[in-house]
């Protein structure tokens, strides 16, 4: 959104009283300068440049004409003499800011919102925006300051801050910023100047990385890593053995200075997957706590991240390719894996061993082969693997949330011809596991192969796996599937194929099972108690001639409640909208019933 015509609108001091509303004075229209950061940004001091460059407004008229009458932004005034921007959802404003010192910055918003809550976002230089929920103030004449709970990481120099009105009826008066405790340090491939890390012109070199991480950085400090390629005969690694605190996290932030993000290359190869080749882990936590790592990429490492006996880790915008495992966590608690991906791995995207608790994985993709049949995988490749602890007396992993997580192309054929490779694989000791808005595509065994205790699924889809949902739950409470789609399960070897395979206790609500080879549902009786599945308000249908909707072994139970079922040669297939064997999410309304009177089955979420 940058333009040669844009520029900060210089702040000025308002008189305590404003006389007659009208056009702004010449002093109020100085088109120069940038806003200070830290400091106060008046809402009406948005950049110059006009519609689509410095702001977006839903109409072309400044309805009040009190200030900057030539702009479309609606600027009102109060008897107190304070201007405010009166926003509508979808509108946004941009502000050029000058930052003398990099680091963490806290942002506060002064606004009014009559009732309910409002939504807004704050973004910097076009990066991912920070969502903000603003509580009601009691009326448009009542303004209050709200401190955004998540800080912004900002490097020195000139930036563009964008405020977006995302929902509600907000009047915006000002944004204020304050630098949080902690120092900023800088690192580039070769370093610069005296290499003391005090600025980009004095940046540490990559050779100083171990000292910078564990000796120079104190709690609350941030190390900014310049973009570019980092390659050495001895591969670089982030070996973290020190800690921040709950109030002062230690941070590493990759920064694109025009040469792309920082990319680190190791020497691990898929031709010898069991050998680390001096590239064991790109990022390694050992008894390390309160770290925030973001914006780094790596390839050619045995592990992208290896974490042992660590806690309070936030890992975001990490991108790994050509690795054996993306993320390997053991005895880790209070961790987040956000906005990250792993591709071309031979073994696992995410591995949780021993006890991992209070983990949130969000906006994450693991794609083992990226559809390239020549990429080698090892036996039993998994997108997510949640393992039993070595000591059976040790609690398994628990309180795990997977939201908007996609697992793809975990493929492997054994010498006997058995095809394995699961999108999500969980062992019996795992509990309190939640899958939300997630997907499993094109895995040669289970989309989900889930033995965990009473897991919960909502808005999940599985297509083209051998068994889309393979659920073993032997808990007294059911595994619950709500609004899931299971379609086109594919026959890959001599073993059974199903939309839902179970030998445990499962309840399904508002879901669709469509055109799965073999059966829509297979129930087996290999454990005690035998499989029992309840399907409520759902659709079960073949694409063409109907067959048996379920295959049941003796002693198993299938209960169908208020469901539309295509079964037997006399059955009628349920017409669905735009079903496709290649579907991966678009069109969003695919697989919904064509007939509007059919209310059963899966529905996409916004």
Question: What class would the helix/strand composition place it in?
Answer: mainly beta
The description of the largest β-sheet is: 30 strands, parallel
Distance between the termini: 27 Å
Mean pLDDT: 90
Low-confidence stretches: 1-5, 8-33
Shape: globular
Q: Give the helix level as a range of percent.
A: under 10%
Rg value? 28 Å
Fraction in beta strands: 35-45%
The number of helical elements comes to 1
The counted number of beta strands is 45
Describe the structure concisely for a colleague.
This protein is mainly β.
Q: Helix and strand layout, with pairings?
A:
Layout (H helix, E strand, L loop, with lengths): L34 E2 L2 E4 L12 E2 L18 E3 L5 E4 L5 E8 L3 E10 L5 E7 L5 E5 L9 E4 L4 E3 L2 E11 L3 E9 L4 E4 L21 H8 L5 E5 L1 E4 L6 E3 L9 E6 L6 E4 L15 E6 L2 E6 L2 E20 L2 E49 L14 E5 L11 E11 L3 E2 L5 E2 L1 E5 L4 E6 L2 E3 L4 E5 L5 E3 L2 E3 L3 E5 L7 E4 L2 E3 L10 E5 L2 E5 L2 E3 L4 E5 L8 E5 L2 E3 L8 E3 L4 E5 L2 E2 L41
Structure write-up:
The protein has 606 residues and is mainly beta. The protein contains 1 helix and 45 strands. It has a 30-stranded parallel β-sheet that branches. Strands 2, 4, 5, 7, 10, 11 and 13 form a 7-stranded antiparallel β-sheet that branches. Strands 1, 3, 6, 8, 9 and 12 form a 6-stranded mixed β-sheet that branches. It starts with 34 loop residues before the first strand and ends in a 41-residue tail after the last strand. Mean pLDDT is 90; it is low at 1-5 and 8-33.
